[in-house]
Design a protein that fits this description.
The complex is a heterodimer of chains A (156) and B (753). Chain A has 156 residues and is of the alpha+beta class. Chain A has 5 helices and 5 strands. In chain A, helix 3 crosses helix 5. Chain B is globular and about 80 Å long. Classes of the chains: A alpha+beta (156), B alpha+beta (753). The interface between A and B is large, with 61 and 61 residues. The structure holds FE2/S2 (inorganic) cluster (FES) (2 copies).
Chain lengths: 156, 753
Amino acid sequence: MDIRLTVNGTEHALSVDVRTTLLDALRERLELTGTKKGCDLGQCGACTVLMDGRRVLACFTLAVAAEGAAITTIEGLAGDDEPLHPMQQAFLENDAYQCGYCTPGQIMSAIACVQEGYAETDEQIREYMSGNLCRCAAYPKIVAAIRQARPLLENR
Amino acid sequence: MPDGTQTMIGQPALRIDGRAKLTGRARYASDEVVPNPAHAFLVTSSIARGRIRGFHLDQARAVPGVLDILTHENVGGEAEKPKPMAGGDTTSTLESDRVWHDGQIIAVVVADSFEAAREAAHKVRVDYEAERPSATFGSPGAEEEVRKAGEHKDYHVGDAEAAFAAAPFKVDARYGTPTQHHNPIELFTTTCVWNGSKLTVYEPSQFVYGLRGNLAQQLHIEPGDIHVISRYVGGAFGSRGGITARTAWIAIAARRLGRPVRLVPTRDQGFTIVTYRAETRHHIQLGATSDGRLTALRHEGWEVTSRPSQYNVSGTETTARVYACPNILTKVNIVHADRNTPGFMRAPPETPYMFPLEVAMDELAVALGMDPVELRRVNDTMRDPATGLEYSSRSLMECYDQAGARFGWKSRDPAPRSMRDGDWLVGWGCASAAYPANIGPAAVRVTLTPEGRARVQIAAHDIGTGAYTVLAITAAERLGLPIEHVTVELGGSELPAAGLAAGSSHTAGICNAVAKACEEIRQKLALAAVVTNDGALSGQDASALVLREGALRSPAGAKEDLRAALSRVTGGVLEVYAENIPQGLPRESIGKAYAGQMSMSRGHSRQDATTYTFGAQFVEVRVHSRTGEVRVPRAVGAFAAGTIVNPLTAHSQCIGGMIWGIGAALHEATEIDPNAARYVNDNLSEYLIPVNADVPQVEAILVPERDDRVNPLGIKGLGEIGIVGMNAAVCNAVWHATGRRIRELPIRIEDLL
Ligand code: FES
Ligand code: FES
């Protein structure tokens, strides 16, 4: 099927199998490999991207269903020579990651979590970030990073 | 090495690979872009024991886009079995028709697209000759044998049986720990690309040279024809240390097709195509005097392995030496079942074996009416009780004191069920952590430019540990440069060899190698600077000169800038290659690293001293009095691991380990169908690992410790110490909350109702 995907502000024309997930389309076709595959079953959150500003699991979204939406991936937050997005900067400063594999998903989720208004307290952050597994268990530092970045995001 | 230069080692530094990871630019193995890859999908066995009579492949072949299907019938003779890092033999895959375990790779489907490969794989029909499998301990047909001394030792000190019989205070109990799977978030991917006779393999790895050497043997090709690339690794925890069967078949698939092949296995396949932590059973007997001094320690363990493997972890090598005790007896048994071969998983011996010891110590404290921390103090020792050797350093009680003070242990009421908060029963528990300070050989190339830039090249592995950054810190400090002026290349077999990133040995191994190379650079520059007639440092004592802030400097303040110093020894950049062979390892160990064989100096096998990292874990649990739900609102650990190169990443490692320990106590267990010998909860929603909401407050204290004997930089390693003992601390806290002593992990709600 021929589709058009708008990712990080750029429109791409591609032809995909109807079964192709948004995740595989990003990774295998558009070489946007920042979005990660950790389970392909909607269980880990590593593939989280924003679709029209809402967090979705790219492994649980068919590429054809993403047509017409504005998709933001981790690559869209800061270009090569640009300063990091405040959430990325907060993850850096708090060492809110180790292997970094869950991290793109954590960051996309964290941005959405703040925008949804679910980052008011640590407890709320923990609850609304529990769909993003981190096997390195950087959880306390992820909470600290979101706490630090929240006011910067709200004022953006 | 001149002293007084240690300024960066020990200062927290942000990860130098941070930007790459945080922007999605870091290329993990399956992110590497290769031209026009075909996609592989594995077919795995649905029986656990028997033989394959035949395949029906017509339907699978008919799926549009299918390019090839590999089975034992067409490629069985093309590869040998991989050789595991430990335990001798292992199960086979496509080499024959034999099925050793459920989920064994039996065919590989290759297609133009992932979707087509998956569809075709599901259309492969298999005729089996099935036999009844043995799942685990106690299953009919499981074979038990005593583990012979070889890779691991048993200890026999004094007369433990007689001492136990005579002891006025005793603990005599049996314990169990479950099967666990690493489940790093990155899947077990492999991408193979041939270019003529040269093969490039992209695979997340803890030992790129091991992968190269082993694969070369399997495929009967030259190691030099294989290039393994693994720049970023999405978690490992032991699962990527040894080579597994998939790699050779993907290489063969790519060779047959004349096209790159990429495998991204599913999460459930990850439970059976790599290793795991096997379930264990334990019998512990402790005897003590009325003032708490241990008089007898007996620890017997049982571990499951596959039919052909002798793999075992023998954590008695640690439990025999944590406390002073004149009479020690250890023994380990292996039980062979129809399972995949287990392997290293974070603190392989200590996680399952320290659990029974540390729960037993808590039980002994209760029997004696003694505070559990005081019981540890009474039995603390600076001499290894199993061998009589001195500990190179040991700060167990400092760890207890610091973590205990932070936790507020003093205000604990020792009586169980004494600390209630409404419907919640509150309990506090503690336990010791111990892990050997290991180190492997490593080679490195360090290049210094006149502009004051340095490059470090080493086939090290950053599995989330912060290896990129500790290498940069070490080079920056020893060359007197800012960290930002050091670049690090790692994770590829084109680089000088480093050993396996495992056993908490990697930071010690690679940083000591870098320090050695930098010392050679300093010496070269210093010697040239002092023999010249015209320089600012001419005639000085070369051994006293240091590189600091972009110049070669004398203690009295004379200096020569880097460019001038460098120009005396080279017209351009200065490149030094160094090999570091840790004390106690033979010269050949560096050759072994290049050949992809493991060699490691272990903290409990050194001739000069016993070298161990110690720690103390404190935890609060809340058990709901009506539902039995267990929560862990807070945990405090303290660890003394010698020199801490980067406290920021070290701290992350420690809290990560502690959270693993909480998971080991309360969540993690792979359930096995006893009839089918099959893993049941082989996915991330049913295999429970801690999520953010499970771990509100976890604190780690890095206790300062100096150890001049362990290795030149004094690094003991701390990738694993954080998990050790935490399962026991949780268990002990649950006893304190409820009065129930649970000796089998994980602790479940039904244990507490
Ligand atoms: S890959 Fe999408 S949730 Fe795990
Ligand atoms: S940083 Fe490794 S999984 Fe989260």
